[in-house]
Amino acid sequence: MTDTTSGTLRLPPRIHVGEGARAQLPLLLAEFGRRVFAIVDPFVATTPAFAGIRHAIEAEGAQLTVATEVLPELPVASLDALAERARAAHPDVILAIGGGSALDAAKVVALLAAHGGPLSRYYGENLVPGPVTPLVAVPTTAGTGSEATPVAVVTDPDRELKVGVSSPYLVPAAAIVDAELTLGAPAGVTAASGIDALVHLAESYTAAPLGAHWDAALPVFTGRNVFSDVIALDAAGRIGRWLPVAVAEPDHREARRHLAYASLVGGMSFGATGTHLSHALQYPIGALTHTAHGVGTGLLLPYVLDAVRVDADAAARIAELGRALGSTATSEAARIDDAVALTAELGQRIGLPPSLAALGLDAAELPRVAELGMASARLVSMSPLRADAELLLEILHRAHAGTLTKRSTR
Questions:
Q1: Which domains are seen in the chain, by residue range?
Q2: Neighbours of 326 (CB within 10 A)
Q3: What confidence tens digit (pLDDT) does each residue in 173-201 have?
């Protein structure tokens, strides 16, 4: 029987959520010291909102250095250069403002500023030797939840896929989640980031129970978690209701508030638990098609849910996800059907491509994608249904065709 009373939670010591919460930044940063190294998304750095943040921080007496060289996909060489700039500034605290790339870049810089490189020393889990430079994270998109997670994902030219650095030491020292900073984000960014937050919630809620071995060092991601059980469904329901609104109306304040909160909760949920097959498959798909991470994970999610429903524990959880997304069906099987259908319909409503074929992925590549997906051993191990290359290939074939017809019997 699965233990439903155990779990691990690693969060920033302080999290402030709400419109206008960024007003807390000057006082919060001052608690760490006067020298602030800010890593800011290059577009965000040109906005009036950032100008206001900068003025408020400097008015409090801080010495602010601003770096905007955040490149897409975070190539390692660019992060080495950022870290050199940070070390030269001798920061007391690092401030990250932007989407997931800016926040992950800041985590890497906080690590390299404290412990030196090369970054490859830290690839994997629990290889960061100690505390990093304190980091205050301020997201401007609602999707990655990186402001609350222990992981940063980067691109290394020597590796076929993206690689991650995972350590409790990477959890930011504080997070400021201010939905006003997400107002007006383009529809495509809103859609890709918002659906990825739903995938974080769905996969962390359905993850396999790995079981805690309290007499040994814990992995960073510990599997099914009592804390995720408490928070994930409410946040998933908010995304199902409000994501299409935000995509259609970029300045809709209520939608932005719900999505900013739900994205944070997604990070809180998967940051301890982990994600599984949508993410394992998206890493090679993203490398081959150069499409946004959330587009791939969101497209794959209904196929993954439909594939793992044959596991009894996963089935019950998928049914609850269906209820959270609006299913009023009376039977568990019907609520599972609704969960699959509703996630697929949500993708259609926000403009996701209808299939992997529409992403430009050639059917001949599917076996290689399955092979590379299996290489993401940590993600595959989180699947509630034992995953092998055959299962991954089945998911891929159905997602490539864009059909959610009855699965074949395995």
A1: 21-177 (3.40.50.1970), 187-401 (1.20.1090.10)
A2: 12
A3: 999 999 999 999 999 999 999 999 999 99
